[in-house]
Each structure stands twice: as C-alpha cells, then as structure tokens.
Specification:
Keywords: Signal. The structure is a single chain. The chain has about 425 residues and is mainly beta. The chain is about 10% helix and about 55% strand. It has helices spanning about 1-10, 10-45, 65-70; strands at about 100-105, 110-120, 125-130, 140-150, 150-160, 160-170, 175-180, 185-195, 195-200, 210-215, 220-225, 230-240, 240-245, 250-255, 265-270, 275-285, 285-295, 300-305, 310-320, 320-330, 330-340, 345-350, 355-360, 365-375, 380-390, 395-405, 405-410. The chain has a 14-stranded parallel sheet with strand order 1-3-5-7-9-11-13-15-17-19-21-23-25-27, with helices on one face. A 13-stranded parallel sheet has the order 2-4-6-8-10-12-14-16-18-20-22-24-26, with no helix packed on it. The longest helix is centred in the N-terminal third of the chain and has 35 residues, at about 10-45. Mean pLDDT is about 80; it is low at about 1-50.
C-alpha cells in the first residue's frame, strides 16, 4: 500500500517528463505503423492481384502483359471449318440392297485397279472413280471392304499412282477419299462401330493419311496439300471430333484419342526448308486441343490425361518447341510463340481442381518452364502462372508451384 502511494508521489516535473516520453513513444509507434501500412499498400499495388483475365495473372502496374495478348488469335482460326468436308457425305441411295459403282478411265503403266467387297448386311454403297491421264507411275488402286449395314464409301483418284483403302465394319459409317495431284498419295480409312464419318483429301505427291475410328459418332477430316505430308488420326471412343490440315509439305501430325467428347484441331503450314511435327494424345473426357504451327522445324507435343483439359499451342517462325503434359482434371494451358528458337515446357499434375498456365513468347531465344503440382481433393484450388516475354533476347523464366491457391506472373521485356 505505502509502496503504491510512493510510486505515485513523484515530483510534478518528473510526471510531465514521463508523460511526454510516453506520448513520444506512442507517436513513434504510430508513425512506424503508418509507414509499415503505407509500404504494405505500395507493395500490394505491385502484386499481380487479378487472375480473372482470360490469359492468366494481371499485373495492374503495367499494360505490357495486356497488350501482348490483345491481338492473339486462336491457333486454328478455321480449324472446325475443315469438318465442313463431311457435308460431302450422304446416305445410301437404296437401303434395301448393297450398291457398288466403279468407273475407271486410264491407259498405260498398269492403269487402274479396284476391288470392292460388301457383305454381312444391306444398304452398303460404294463408288470408285479412277482417272489416269498418262501412262507414267504405277496403277491407281482402291480396295473397299464393307461389312455391316448402311455403310457408305466414296473413292475418287485422279493422279498417276495412288492407293486408297476403305474398310468399314459396323453400321451407318461413312468414308470418303479424294486424291488428286501427281503421284503416290495414300489414304487409309478403317471404321468400326456406329455412325462414324471420315474424309481424306490429298493434293500434290507423296502424302500419306490414316484415319481409324472405333466407337460411335466420331468425325475425322484430314486435308493435305504439298508434298510428303504424313497424318494419322485415331479416335477410340464416342462423339470425338478431329480435323487435320497440313500445307506445303513435309509436315507430320499424329493424333490419338482414348475417351469421349474429345476434340482436336490441327493446322500445320510449312514456311521454310523443314516441316513441322505435332503429336497429340488425349485420354479421358472433354479434352480439347488446338494446335497451329507455321514456319519451319517446329515441334509440338501435347499429352492430356484426365477429365477436363484444354490446350492451345500456336507457333510461328522456325525451330520452336512446345511440350505440354496435363495429367488432371480441369487444366488449361495456352502457349503462343512467335519468332525463332523459343522453347516452352509446361507440366501440370494433380487431381481435380484446376491448373492454368499461359505462356506468350515473341521474337527469339526465349525459354519458359512451368511445373505446377496441386494437392489432392475435390477443392484443391488452382495454380495459375503467366509468363510473358517479348523482345528480351536470351530470356529464361521458370515457375514451380506446389500446393493450392498459388499465383505467379513473370513479365520480361
């Protein structure tokens, strides 16, 4: 008690001094807090706070990332229009019997050959038309085998030498082959199932195309012009859609589908001495891949395994390489590379939720590697990464995110 009174019985000057020191301390602490708060606000303004944009994470302090993506068009702007060739297909003229019509005109060097076998059902229709204007090259050959009911096949060849094989075993399958140009174009259609449609169109020389569809309601179109293009499309499921267009020769495309509702559009146009190469593998449900390559020596590999995946790879210029692997559900990735020698490698793994990665590289010698691994669970969150590199020579960006709810943005100019 006396001690308490003694502590409060200090000289007035001492109390005023102590009070002033206390107020000074409080003001100093308040100023520090304000400084920290303001610096925190300034720091927050520099962070990529917006992930609602269509191309990744937005940095609000610069418009360079926005401007870089403004004029980027889809990789295959008219990819789905290739499927308009399916309009050339039609139903059988008489579903009560099998119909076969062969018309061959040619001379010299083994001329034309055709073989059609239809059995097992009714309503199958086959037309083979082969025209050979000269005696050079080998023969025009067409083999059509149809087993089942209401299968339609049309083969037309007008070139020095060519090979077309159509085998349909099922019901209501429609296949068409159109080959013109010079020589040595080969087309193979093999359809097993119900309501599958396939069209192969060739021009110039030495093009090879194979379309294999097993399942139901699959659509496939392969169109190749130029020399020495090679395309293969395999769909093993239901309601799949594939379109491949390759121009100016030496391009190679491979597509494999092991699920339902998968869609793949490819367009490759060689501009330069070397051809472009694309390999797409999709397994699961609702996987979508759109790929467009212009230039020379570009190589793109897309592998999607899961439930919901999207991929868009567009490369222009020469010797660009893009490799994407998505093993998950709900993943998105866009890769657009302009210029030469750009390399982008994206790997997204996890179960459920969504990973998103968008890479835009322009001009030359950029390299970006993004690896995103998400935690398990239905509500695992989303990893989002944006890498934008424009005009910076020799740039390299690497982003590794693991867990849930990560954002990342890299802008290099």
């Amino acid at each position: 008690m006396s001690r308490h009174l003694q502590l409060n019985r200090q000289p007035k000057s001492k109390m005023i001094e102590k009070r002033g020191n206390k107020m000074k301390t409080q003001m100093t602490a308040l100023a520090a807090a304000v400084t920290i708060t303001m610096s925190g606000m300034a720091f927050a303004q520099q962070l990529p706070l917006d992930n609602s944009v269509s191309w990744g994470v937005d940095n609000p302090n610069t418009s360079r990332d926005n401007d870089a993506w403004d004029n980027v068009q889809p990789a295959v702007p008219s990819g789905s229009n290739i499927l308009n060739a399916l309009n050339l297909l039609g139903p059988t003229s008489d579903t009560s019997q099998n119909v076969s019509d062969i018309d061959q005109t040619g001379s010299g060097s083994n001329a034309n050959e055709a073989s059609v076998q239809q059995g097992g059902g009714v309503g199958n229709q086959s037309d083979v038309i082969q025209v050979k204007a000269s005696g050079s090259g080998g023969p025009n050959e067409a083999y059509v085998d149809q087993f089942g009911t209401n299968n339609v096949s049309y083969v037309s060849q007008d070139l020095d030498s060519g090979l077309a094989e159509v085998l349909q075993n099922g019901t209501n399958n429609q296949g068409r082959v159109e080959q013109g140009g010079n020589q040595n174009n080969s087309a193979f259609i093999d359809q097993t199932g119900i309501n599958n449609r396939s069209v192969i169109q060739h021009g110039s020389s030495d093009n090879v195309a194979s379309s294999v569809q097993a399942g139901f309601s699959q659509d496939s179109v392969i169109r190749q012009t130029g020399d020495a293009n090679n395309a293969s499309a395999t769909q093993l499921g239901g309601n799949g859609e594939s379109a491949i267009a390759q121009n100016r020769g030496l391009n190679q495309a491979t597509y494999l589908d092991l699920g339902f509702n998968n869609t793949s559009y490819m367009r490759q146009r060689r501009i330069g001495p070397d051809g472009n190469t694309a390999d797409v593998f999709q397994g699961g449900f609702d996987n979508f891949s759109e790929l467009g390559q212009d230039g020379s020596g570009n190589d793109a590999v897309v592998t999607q395994v899961g439930a919901f995946s999207d991929s868009d790879i567009q490369q222009e210029g020469n010797d660009n390489s893009a490799t994407l692997l998505q093993v998950s559900g709900g993943s998105n990735s866009y890769i657009s590379q302009f210029g030469d020698d750009n390399i982008a490698n994206v790997t997204q793994t996890g179960l459920f939720g969504s990973n998103e990665s968008y890479i835009l590289q322009s001009n030359n010698d950029h390299e970006a590697t993004v690896t995103q691994a998400r935690g398990f669970g239905l509500f695992g969150g989303a990893n989002i990464s944006t890498v934008t590199q424009v005009g910076t020579v020799g740039s390299s960006a690497s982003v590794t995110q693991s867990g849930t709810g990560n954002w990342a943005s890299t802008i290099q100019y």
